[in-house]
Amino acid sequence: xxxxxxxxxxxxxxxxxxxxxxxxxxxxxxxxxxxxxxxxxxxxxxxxxxxxxxxxxxxxxxxxxxxxxxxxxxxxxxxxxxxxxxxxxxxxxxxxxxxxxxxxxxxxxxxxxxxxxxxxxxxxxxxxxxxxxxxxxxxxxxxxxxxxxxxxxxxxxxxxxxxxxxxxxxxxxxxxxxxxxxxxxx
Length: 186
Fold this sequence. Notes:
By secondary structure, the chain is α+β, with helices and mostly antiparallel strands. The protein has helices at residues 41-50, 72-87, 128-140, and strands at 10-13, 26-30, 33-36, 54-67, 93-104, 107-120, 146-147, 150-151, 157-163, 169-174, 181-185.
Protein backbone atom coordinates (compact mmCIF):
# COMPACT_ATOMS: atom_id res chain seq x y z
CA UNK A 1 0.00 0.00 0.00
CA UNK A 2 1.30 3.44 -0.93
CA UNK A 3 1.46 6.00 1.87
CA UNK A 4 -0.93 8.95 1.47
CA UNK A 5 0.88 12.23 0.79
CA UNK A 6 -0.97 15.51 1.15
CA UNK A 7 -0.20 19.22 1.35
CA UNK A 8 2.09 19.80 4.34
CA UNK A 9 3.80 16.40 4.13
CA UNK A 10 7.56 16.52 4.78
CA UNK A 11 9.80 14.01 3.01
CA UNK A 12 13.31 13.46 4.33
CA UNK A 13 16.14 11.57 2.68
CA UNK A 14 17.09 8.24 4.22
CA UNK A 15 20.78 8.92 4.58
CA UNK A 16 22.92 9.47 7.62
CA UNK A 17 21.50 12.52 9.35
CA UNK A 18 21.84 14.33 12.64
CA UNK A 19 21.14 11.98 15.56
CA UNK A 20 18.01 13.77 16.75
CA UNK A 21 16.28 13.20 13.38
CA UNK A 22 16.37 9.47 14.15
CA UNK A 23 14.05 10.19 17.08
CA UNK A 24 11.33 11.49 14.75
CA UNK A 25 8.69 9.02 13.65
CA UNK A 26 8.89 8.40 9.92
CA UNK A 27 7.72 5.84 7.42
CA UNK A 28 9.54 4.72 4.25
CA UNK A 29 7.97 6.26 1.18
CA UNK A 30 9.83 5.87 -2.10
CA UNK A 31 13.42 5.14 -3.02
CA UNK A 32 15.56 6.64 -0.29
CA UNK A 33 12.91 9.01 1.10
CA UNK A 34 10.71 8.75 4.18
CA UNK A 35 7.66 10.69 5.29
CA UNK A 36 7.83 12.41 8.69
CA UNK A 37 4.68 11.32 10.51
CA UNK A 38 2.55 13.59 12.66
CA UNK A 39 4.47 16.82 12.02
CA UNK A 40 3.99 19.64 9.55
CA UNK A 41 6.73 22.10 8.56
CA UNK A 42 6.11 24.44 11.51
CA UNK A 43 6.09 21.66 14.14
CA UNK A 44 9.20 20.06 12.68
CA UNK A 45 10.91 23.47 12.60
CA UNK A 46 10.23 23.95 16.33
CA UNK A 47 11.62 20.48 17.16
CA UNK A 48 14.73 21.08 15.06
CA UNK A 49 15.35 24.49 16.64
CA UNK A 50 14.86 22.99 20.12
CA UNK A 51 17.70 20.58 19.29
CA UNK A 52 19.94 23.54 18.36
CA UNK A 53 19.76 23.05 14.60
CA UNK A 54 18.16 25.02 11.76
CA UNK A 55 15.48 24.09 9.21
CA UNK A 56 15.79 26.12 6.03
CA UNK A 57 12.96 26.83 3.57
CA UNK A 58 13.92 27.46 -0.05
CA UNK A 59 11.76 30.09 -1.74
CA UNK A 60 11.96 28.54 -5.21
CA UNK A 61 8.92 26.36 -5.83
CA UNK A 62 9.41 23.05 -7.66
CA UNK A 63 6.44 21.85 -9.76
CA UNK A 64 5.62 18.76 -11.77
CA UNK A 65 2.52 18.07 -13.85
CA UNK A 66 0.90 14.64 -14.02
CA UNK A 67 -1.79 13.51 -16.45
CA UNK A 68 -4.77 11.39 -15.45
CA UNK A 69 -6.80 11.12 -12.28
CA UNK A 70 -5.00 12.06 -9.06
CA UNK A 71 -4.09 9.01 -7.04
CA UNK A 72 -1.40 7.90 -4.61
CA UNK A 73 0.72 6.22 -7.30
CA UNK A 74 0.53 9.25 -9.63
CA UNK A 75 1.55 11.57 -6.78
CA UNK A 76 4.38 9.19 -5.86
CA UNK A 77 5.73 9.26 -9.44
CA UNK A 78 5.48 13.08 -9.47
CA UNK A 79 7.38 13.28 -6.18
CA UNK A 80 10.08 10.95 -7.55
CA UNK A 81 10.60 13.39 -10.43
CA UNK A 82 10.67 16.35 -8.04
CA UNK A 83 13.11 14.64 -5.65
CA UNK A 84 15.50 13.93 -8.54
CA UNK A 85 15.63 17.68 -9.22
CA UNK A 86 16.02 18.54 -5.54
CA UNK A 87 18.73 15.92 -4.98
CA UNK A 88 21.02 17.80 -7.39
CA UNK A 89 21.04 20.71 -4.91
CA UNK A 90 21.83 18.29 -2.03
CA UNK A 91 18.95 19.43 0.19
CA UNK A 92 17.84 16.75 2.64
CA UNK A 93 14.10 17.50 2.93
CA UNK A 94 11.13 18.45 0.78
CA UNK A 95 7.77 19.89 1.82
CA UNK A 96 4.70 19.31 -0.37
CA UNK A 97 2.85 22.64 -0.63
CA UNK A 98 0.35 21.94 -3.39
CA UNK A 99 -1.56 19.13 -5.09
CA UNK A 100 -4.07 20.70 -7.47
CA UNK A 101 -6.34 18.63 -9.74
CA UNK A 102 -7.68 20.29 -12.91
CA UNK A 103 -9.17 19.46 -16.30
CA UNK A 104 -8.33 20.77 -19.73
CA UNK A 105 -10.75 19.88 -22.54
CA UNK A 106 -12.03 17.06 -20.34
CA UNK A 107 -8.57 15.60 -19.72
CA UNK A 108 -7.73 15.34 -16.01
CA UNK A 109 -4.31 16.45 -14.82
CA UNK A 110 -2.73 17.68 -11.62
CA UNK A 111 0.16 19.83 -10.50
CA UNK A 112 2.24 18.69 -7.53
CA UNK A 113 4.43 21.41 -6.04
CA UNK A 114 6.59 22.05 -3.04
CA UNK A 115 9.72 23.58 -1.62
CA UNK A 116 13.12 22.20 -0.77
CA UNK A 117 13.97 22.20 2.94
CA UNK A 118 17.31 21.58 4.59
CA UNK A 119 18.36 20.63 8.12
CA UNK A 120 21.81 21.73 9.24
CA UNK A 121 23.47 23.03 12.36
CA UNK A 122 24.81 26.34 11.06
CA UNK A 123 22.43 29.29 10.97
CA UNK A 124 23.74 30.28 7.53
CA UNK A 125 22.78 27.97 4.66
CA UNK A 126 25.83 26.13 3.36
CA UNK A 127 26.60 26.05 -0.37
CA UNK A 128 26.08 22.88 -2.41
CA UNK A 129 29.69 21.74 -2.00
CA UNK A 130 29.64 22.38 1.74
CA UNK A 131 26.39 20.38 2.04
CA UNK A 132 27.98 17.52 0.09
CA UNK A 133 31.07 17.60 2.33
CA UNK A 134 28.91 17.62 5.47
CA UNK A 135 26.94 14.67 4.13
CA UNK A 136 30.14 12.72 3.41
CA UNK A 137 31.25 13.38 7.02
CA UNK A 138 27.90 12.12 8.34
CA UNK A 139 28.20 9.00 6.18
CA UNK A 140 31.75 8.41 7.44
CA UNK A 141 30.70 9.04 11.04
CA UNK A 142 33.12 11.96 11.37
CA UNK A 143 30.65 14.84 11.59
CA UNK A 144 32.37 17.76 13.22
CA UNK A 145 35.59 15.82 13.86
CA UNK A 146 38.15 18.43 12.93
CA UNK A 147 38.95 21.92 11.78
CA UNK A 148 42.36 21.97 10.17
CA UNK A 149 43.02 18.52 11.67
CA UNK A 150 42.22 19.64 15.25
CA UNK A 151 39.44 17.53 16.84
CA UNK A 152 36.30 19.41 17.84
CA UNK A 153 32.81 18.59 19.11
CA UNK A 154 30.04 18.04 16.56
CA UNK A 155 28.17 21.14 17.74
CA UNK A 156 31.01 23.58 17.03
CA UNK A 157 29.67 26.32 14.81
CA UNK A 158 31.57 28.56 12.47
CA UNK A 159 30.13 32.05 12.42
CA UNK A 160 32.37 33.94 10.08
CA UNK A 161 35.24 33.71 7.66
CA UNK A 162 37.57 36.53 6.70
CA UNK A 163 40.34 36.61 4.10
CA UNK A 164 43.72 37.58 5.47
CA UNK A 165 46.32 39.69 3.70
CA UNK A 166 48.84 36.81 3.75
CA UNK A 167 46.64 34.76 1.40
CA UNK A 168 45.13 32.52 4.08
CA UNK A 169 41.93 32.97 5.98
CA UNK A 170 40.63 33.28 9.51
CA UNK A 171 37.76 31.10 10.68
CA UNK A 172 35.87 32.31 13.73
CA UNK A 173 34.59 29.41 15.82
CA UNK A 174 32.04 29.06 18.63
CA UNK A 175 31.03 25.98 20.63
CA UNK A 176 27.57 26.35 22.22
CA UNK A 177 28.22 23.37 24.54
CA UNK A 178 31.19 24.97 26.28
CA UNK A 179 30.70 28.62 25.39
CA UNK A 180 34.28 28.73 24.10
CA UNK A 181 35.22 30.64 21.00
CA UNK A 182 38.38 31.06 18.99
CA UNK A 183 40.01 31.84 15.67
CA UNK A 184 41.65 29.37 13.31
CA UNK A 185 44.06 31.03 10.85
CA UNK A 186 45.07 29.28 7.66
